[in-house]
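Q: Trace token order:
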Amino acid sequence: MPERNIDFGKFGARGIKGHEAVARQLDALANFISTPITQRRGLLARLHYLTRTDHARAAAREAGLTVTDRTLKAWLDGKRNPSKKNLQAIETAYYTVRRHNVARYLLARLNREGRGTRVEFHPLNQSQVPRPLQRVIEYRTLNVRHWDRIVEAWAADDDEALDDAWVNDVTVDLGSQWGEYEYVTNIGFAA
């Protein structure tokens, strides 16, 4: 695709890919549990979220948490502690299940019955780039009306699909300068 940055940061520019900033913002809107899993409270909160109903247990198993009910009960009662591998499996399952559960709600809020959501593009940081090599990149806003592919890729944790959806469905609407917003410092929107 033309205008894709091949050697980003060669002259000192800093930023992250736009789809990564979108994923970070969607994660913030999903309201994940903020207490770390290494603390008892964080572990219990995640385990309760993953085991409170039969549907939640099935989703957790599908997401990769394949321990017995006896082990889960021992963890919940505090009789045993999960290993590092199991802590990672719990964390991964929690994020997967939470994204899946929140995706439909976020999609409705972002699409707003066809009205869409205003998105702010904060340009990349050029403070370390020598003056003659700096480009004029403005702060931009855009109303995004179709979030379906973006939220679907985010919920599936598919980085490649999210990048494709973000670039081909959103940033191309910025006009001929869309390539300047492949890397940004932040993407802002609310739902």
In short: The chain has a mean pLDDT of 92. Helices lie at 18-29, 40-51, 54-62, 69-77, 84-111, 148-155, 159-169. Strands lie at 16-17, 117-123, 140-144, 183-188.
